[in-house]
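Risk register update: the risk of archive-format incompatibility is retired. Evidence:
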Amino acid sequence: MNHHAVARHAGPGLNRRRFLAAAGLTAAAGAAITTAVQSRAGAAPSARSFRVPVEDVRHTRTWMAFPDSTSIWGNKLSGVQADIALIARTIAKYEPVVLCANSGSAAKARSMCGPTVTVINSIPVDDCWMRDTGPVFRRDGYGGLDTVGLNFNGWGNKQAHSRDALVAERIAAHVGVPFTYADLVGEGGAIEQDGAGTLMATRSSLVNRNRNPGMSERELERAMCDAYGATKVIWFDGVYGQDITDDHVDATSRFLSPGEALVQMPVAGDNDAYARDARKQYDKLSVSTTSSGRAMDVMRLQGPDYNKIRSTNRDFLASYANFYLCNDAVISAQFGDKRADEAARATLSRLYPDRYIEQINIDRLGTGGGGIHCVTQQQPVA
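Archived output:
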């Protein structure tokens, strides 16, 4: 089994090993992202004065997207829409949620989400992965807020993305905050930040010719640090070419605070590429230091036994680590391995004692290879 972010955007009936042949990429989508990279509109505030905060800060709102493409999702679409609506309603108990929907599906989104979720149809979308398509919000510590776009290119031109390539800039305009494009191509799920100068990422997602051809690891580090207001990157090797994201870090390793990280560990019997990668991520973090030279404190979050979860899909993503922090709550998944689900709840409760732990069933989204963090993007309070 491969237990990670699978060929979630590849189209109906495909597994992660066949997604490249059916991505539905359009020439216009590739042109859109090329134009976006080339047209850096105006001078942005100094990236060194703005920094992406750690995710446990207070939020103004959460941004999400409502999928409506049968060419991407096939007969799985209605189930994925139901999971997106469940996530939106759950977060809306704690903070405002704005859901971007296309004009033709906005009414359905409103009916599924109910009155607590704000649905807008002014920002068109191709899919639901707002973590990767949305803007990355930054703060300057003095009440200033701006955004940076990561030049989303459909995970290396694996899926049509002409609308999603523009989501970041359009949300920034909707909010009315400055926007600039980063000097790299990537996705929000590919980069974790501690809010104090340290990033972590997989080489497989970013040091990859399908996103950043010709860029060295050092050049990428500089671009990432400029975008995030950081000074150090902790690199993991990752897993190349086995899922559409090329192994996003946010399904395995997360920052809790400066100097503190969490890694979801596989069960002892798992030894596929992703299980080996997770163990390597833990080992690497355990001997790493932060940008300030502090030794990393690394927690373990035990993953479920894939023989005991509800889903029998071999490409299912069962990531507790892909949780989302919102105001006063942690929104996490549960997968039907009751012992592991309860252990994950206990771990999250210990790590976030002042937050309510919401565990929800998002199996349809998991079958598509994603989780709760993948479909959300926080707008921090300035």
